[in-house]
Design a protein that fits this description.
heterodimer; A: 342 residues; alpha+beta; five-stranded antiparallel sheet; extended; B: 255 residues; two-stranded antiparallel sheet; 10 helices; 2 strands; elongated
Chain lengths: 342, 255
């Protein structure tokens, strides 16, 4: 056992006898510009050219502003491009010139400066303590208990109003995650900013895809609320050959002659899932490649989603239009921690 | 009054001309392109020589090829007219390639397949216009974003699907082929029938695509319009590369 191993436990051994020696400053290398006046002159010209490029850049930028006036949105392309290039050149020209100047012509002798002692001298420390003691004696902080304790109390209470403000962050989520505006008898309509038209079952031919919202969405006046409800209620409507559907007998009445409707909101993080492949019946989410088998109750067959897309039960009303049998039977969109609690 | 024999003949002749001509005129309205029996026969010959090994000798489908009964002339015109058919190799998806037939041959095959069962017809030139007072680009853009952009990208640059399939880029595709793709749903593309997107809706969508194709992007260089991946890669390689190069230069000593 060596000397070091005796003194220090394993893992802490440090060879204090032979510390790494200070390599000192590396030897000074003389630059071309120091050796030859011609090279120095050349560097001077290069720096001047860089500053000159900066001036040209500024002119290009001003030219871009006037040469491409923004009369329509399409003009912003050239305007922004030339002004941006010009500004970049004018800033980089100054920067590159300054760095090149420092590197080639300013003195480059290596210098070492020792660190200062970090500890404050003892006299200064004693003086500081004396100041604190004097202040305590003069203010009576230690002597006058009532003042001190009431101050502690005030300091403890004063942040509470800041906490109360958090109560104003907005309404509680409540059960809004668990319901959409789909109701029994609500017609399925085409997604459109004008409100959308209802869809007849006969219009949905095999292989067709309709992007659907509930008809009662257009009754919502408030724009923000409308978007919130649309984000939950969006549905993809597809007709497949009925023999290709693998239907759970309990949910067989949810489809209509091969027409099925599923929530368009991914159960992973809520992107709209709408990339439908007619023959494989794959439904792909473009964000993280979750893939659902539309013919098999939108079972997850690939990707990070962990539960199938909820199915909207549909039927046909007296006029032949597709309507919902009710709301989704489970929450749409991303899962959350109490999703199974009612 | 005694009728003259030639008058009866004249009346019969007139009746035949009117009913026959009227019928022809009426059917012309229903099917804009009346295909002659010769064309169908020519189409059948071409079909037997080039298509029947996969699609069956009567277009009923066979191993490797789906049934063509009811797919209509539009389907043939799209598949053969873009070179996807005859398919060159089986795989996740058939690629566009140089067209293998003349326009007359394609029209003949389309007429033959259309004669098997009714199906979507080759679109009327009226719905392939991209300019005109009644064309609504904004409407076309909204419909494209709702129905098409999830696969084909918001400006039609195309995108990936599952297991090696992809939605092709739409730049450079003719108006007629875009229309036919919507109405027939080639390969894994869904169908957008006239009840879902009316012919006028389809025309607006095509006009929007052509507008995007012909006008340069407002937001600067597109980098192939494939979105954050291309832009991110560009910044990582060229932006960070530039910063690293400057850092190395700042730290290096002058010669």
């Amino acid at each position: 056992m060596s000397e070091i191993e005796k003194v220090y436990p394993a893992g802490l051994a440090t060879n204090i006898q032979k510390p790494i020696s200070d390599p000192g400053i590396e030897p000074h290398r003389v630059r071309m510009t120091d050796k030859s006046e011609k090279a120095a002159k050349g560097a001077e010209q290069q720096i001047a050219v860089m500053f000159g490029i900066s001036v040209i850049g500024a002119i290009v930028s001003i030219w871009g502003f006037f040469a491409f006036p923004i009369d329509s949105l399409a003009d912003t392309r050239n305007n922004a491009f030339w002004m941006g290039i010009g500004m970049a050149l004018s800033l980089l020209g100054i920067g590159f010139g300054a760095v090149h100047w420092a590197k080639t012509l300013m003195p480059d002798h290596e210098v070492a400066e020792a660190r200062h002692q970090a500890r404050t001298p003892d006299e200064a420390r004693a003086k500081a303590i004396e100041i604190i003691k004097t202040a305590d004696a003069e203010s009576g902080f230690t002597r006058r208990k009532l003042i001190r304790r009431s101050l502690y109390g005030a300091l403890a209470i004063f942040p509470i109003p800041a906490l109360v403000i958090f109560g104003d962050l907005g309404p509680q989520v409540g059960d809004t995650l668990k319901h959409t505006i789909w109701k029994k008898g609500v017609r399925l309509v085409r997604d459109s900013h004008e409100g959308g038209t209802p869809i007849k079952a006969s219009e949905v031919t095999i292989g067709s895809v309709f992007h659907v919202v509930p008809e009662n969405l257009k009754d919502i006046e408030d724009h923000a609320e409308k978007l919130n409800q649309k984000a939950k209620a969006a549905v993809l409507l597809v007709r497949v050959e009925p023999s290709e559907l693998k239907e759970d007998p309990a949910k067989a009445s949810w489809s209509y002659d091969g027409i099925v409707a599923y929530s368009k909101i991914c159960t992973h993080v809520g992107c709209p899932v709408a990339l439908y492949e007619q023959h494989t019946h794959h439904l792909l989410c473009p964000c993280h490649q979750s893939t659902f088998d539309l013919a098999d109750h939108c079972k997850v067959i690939f990707g990070p989603a962990s539960r199938p897309l909820p199915q909207l039960a549909i039927e046909v009303d007296a006029e032949g239009y597709l309507v919902a049998q009710g709301d989704f039977t489970e929450p749409v969109g991303p899962s959350f921690w109490d999703i199974r609690q009612s | 009054m005694r009728r003259r024999p030639w008058a009866i003949g004249f009346v019969i002749f007139l009746g035949l001309v009117l009913s026959g001509g009227g019928y022809a005129a009426a059917t012309n309205v229903v099917q804009s392109e009346v295909s002659s029996a010769d064309q169908v026969a020519e189409g059948r010959k071409l079909f037997l020589a080039n298509c029947a090994s996969c699609h069956g000798s009567n277009g009923e489908g066979a191993i490797g090829g789906p049934s063509l009964i009811g797919v209509g002339a539009a389907s043939v015109d799209f598949q053969v007219g873009t070179g996807r058919m005859p398919g060159q190799a089986s795989g996740p998806q058939l690629y566009k390639k140089p067209v293998q037939f003349t326009e007359e041959q394609i029209a003949a095959m389309a007429a033959y397949v259309a004669s098997l069962a009714p199906g979507p017809a080759i679109p009327d030139a009226e719905y392939l216009r991209t300019t005109g007072e009644d064309i609504d680009l904004t409407h076309g853009s909204e419909l494209f974003r709702i129905n098409c952009a999830m696969c084909h990208n918001a400006v039609g640059a195309g995108g990936a699907l599952t297991e090696g399939k992809f939605a092709p880029a739409l730049g450079g595709v003719t108006e007629k082929h875009i229309y036919e793709a919507m109405v027939t749903g080639p390969q894994n593309m869904p169908v957008f029938n006239d009840a879902n997107l009316t012919p006028e809706d389809k025309r607006d969508i095509i006009a929007y695509l052509k507008y995007v194709e012909e006008n340069e992007s407002v937001g600067g260089y597109e980098l192939a319009s494939i979105g954050p991946v291309a832009e991110g890669l560009f910044v990582w390689i060229f932006g960070l590369g530039f910063i690293i190069a400057i850092t190395v230069w700042l730290g290096a000593k002058a010669n």
